[in-house]
Amino acid sequence: MHFLRWSTRFAYLLAALVLLFMLASGPVFKLGWVGFGSVFQGLMLAVPAGLIAMLLLLVGRLSKVTGNRAWLVMLLLAAVLFLPIQQALVARSVPGIHDISTDLTDPPRFSAAMVVARKDASNPPEYPGTETAQQQQQAYPHIQPLRLAVDRSTVFAQARELVAANGWQLVQANPDRGIIEASDTSWWFGFVDDVIIRIQSDGSGSLVDMRSKSRIGRSDIGANAARIDSFLQQLQQRLAS
User: Are residues 112 and 81 both part of a single domain?
Assistant: First the structure.
């Protein structure tokens, strides 16, 4: 019984440390106080530590060593650990790439303005090459250029409005070249992914290509492909209405 009481106290302390880290990691990274590597290593320790705390609290509660507050702490731990565990499972099912394009032969190239915006990014602005293209084709075969029976100027105007509607930060919009560039920042950690939309005339209609690239990290856990897929679907729906 003495051991159970000691292990329960340890579990509460461990749970408090895990909860504190999980709640603070996003803001401190977003503010630039710690690097991505430190946050990632912390997550690798926090998840198993949180699971151990939950197990010890469950044993303590079932043994009636602790009160009902153990259920509350376990619930809080489950809530904060759900996302990193879910993301880790997703990461195992997708390739370790972070640059997705609808055009794998001639991916849209970032402008000088975007290159400057990415100056502190660990991932270079250039497209990685054949290996990334092959992995994308296997994992995301549905990521394809969008052909529309709408003139280029109308598509460009709607695409620019959609960028604003999605809350992305506009870097440049060049109607003459049919190029829109913007950055999408995640709300919690502040991870930044950059997008370039290229709209070309295609007979009487238009051809829309889009590229989305993460600034940091080896794997985007499918975020860039999901962003392109969602944006092109939204654009198609706007032009169809």
Answer: no
DSSP label at residue 65: S
Distance between CA atoms of 70 and 58, rounded to whole angstroms? Answer: 7
pLDDT at 34: 84
Paired strand residues for 180: 173, 197
Q: What is the CA radius of gyration of the chain?
A: 23
89 and 106 share one domain: no
Are residues 147 and 184 located together in one domain of the fold? yes
Number of domains in the chain: 2
For tokens 């654009």, what's the residue? 235
pLDDT given for residue 163 in this prediction: 98
Q: What is the mean pLDDT of residues 232-240?
A: 95
**pTM of this prediction exceeds 0.90:** no
> Which residue do the tokens 């290509």 mark?
209
**Residue 148 or 34, more confident:** 148
Domain boundary among the residues 66, 93, 120 is at 93
Residue numbers of the domain that contains 224:
99-240
Cβ neighbours of 38 (radius 10 Å): 13
**Is the pLDDT reported for residue 1 higher than 70?**
no
Q: Torsion over CA of 31, 36, 40 and 42, rounded to 10 degrees?
A: -50
Q: For Cα atoms 223, 163, 230, give the angle at the middle one, nearest 5 degrees.
A: 40
